[in-house]
Every structure is written in structure tokens, then in C-alpha cells.
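Annotated sample (chain length 231).
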Amino acid sequence: MGISFDNLDQDAGLKKLNGFLTNKSYIEGYQFSAADVATFEKFSSVPDAAKNPNVYRWYVHVAAKLGLRAILVAKKAAAPKQEAPKKAAAPAVEEEEEEDDDDDMFGDDDEEEDDEATKALAAKRAEAAKAASAKKEKKKPVERSQVVLEVKPWEAETNLEELAAKIKALPIEGLSWGEGHKLVPVAFGIKKLLVQCIIIDDMVLLDDITEAIEQFEDYVQSVDVASMNKM
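Output written by the structure step:
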């Protein structure tokens, strides 16, 4: 029986799933499967990235797999937004009771009070702007994973050293290849190539890597994920 997660509309259920996904990218194994779809369909809204970062990362990844980017954006847009504080209304200017300004004995005092109110309002705005700027600059920690890929050739005569060089030359944003690699015997003189890389989880999908390697179709028969560990 496969792994199942329920009560995903409650904190307890989300906390359990978040812990499970700490060092995993999928519900079962190393590939996207029906278990991910079944779990995804139990959500009624996008999970909170601050409370359950692992669940949020997995949810966005599965949504992209299912072609639900538009739905994901719509759900985010539907979330309630904080309204900006309304600007305080400027005090109404009272009509002068007398036409002659020289007869206004308290005019200077009123101007001083207006200056104080303006300075206080400006100070509050500056403080609010500073707090907003500090919040914006606070960055979310970057999550990375170490991935080992297993590349199988078509035949024993395949030059795996040459293939390893081609793979490590692939320019994939958010991915860095390890310096070393291994050739592991399989059978009948055929060896498989093991290459290691480190990926930024929010930038790189496993399918992106395997598809990039499979483009060397003269060399590569198949590409599988041998292991994946959170760093």
C-alpha cells in the first residue's frame, strides 16, 4: 500500500507532510507519480510557504508538472491583501472670519501647530518605509539538493569519458556539476556512468536534467536518479 497523507486542510496534516518532504522531492521514490497527483488533489488552497516550506516547494513543483501554473497564480491572487494605510486627511482650512489678516492675533500659533503635525506625519511615514524596506530585504534561505545520476550507454564501446565531459558542459541555471564521476560495471562488458551535481531546488527540476542528458542520443540509452539528498 502506498504512502497516504490526509487532513491537509489542518495544521497537523500539513506538519506531517512537511516533515516527510524534508529530504524528498516526491511522495514515492525519485520520480513524479500518481501518489503526487492524489496528494495534490487533497489541497483546497496553496500552502503557506512560511509555515510549511517543504510542502510549498513540492506543491509548486507538482502544479508545474500538471500544467497548473495559471491556477496557482489565480489562487495566490485570490488571497486577501493588506490594504495600504490611508493617507491622513489634511485638516480643512477654515474660512477667515475677517478679511484683514492683520487682525488675526493667533495666526502664528496655528502655523506652528501645522508645522509640528507635518513633521510628525513625515517621521511616521519614514519609519514605515524603513520597516517595509527591511522586510523586503529579508531573503528566504536557498535550499539545495545533491543528486547522483545513473547514465546507461547503448553498448560497451561507448566512450563514457567523452560522454561525461559533454554532460558536465551542459549549461543549466541553478545546477553545478561535481568534478569527479564513476564508471560502474553492469554486464557483458557494459559500464554505466555515475555523475553528481548540486541543484537549487526552486530553480531546477529533475526532468530538466534528464532531458538535457538524453539529447546525446548516440551515447545515452537511459538516465535515472540514483540518489537525491537535501543539503
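Annotation: The chain is about 40% helix and 20% strand.
Annotation: Residues 91-98 have pLDDT under 50 and may be disordered.
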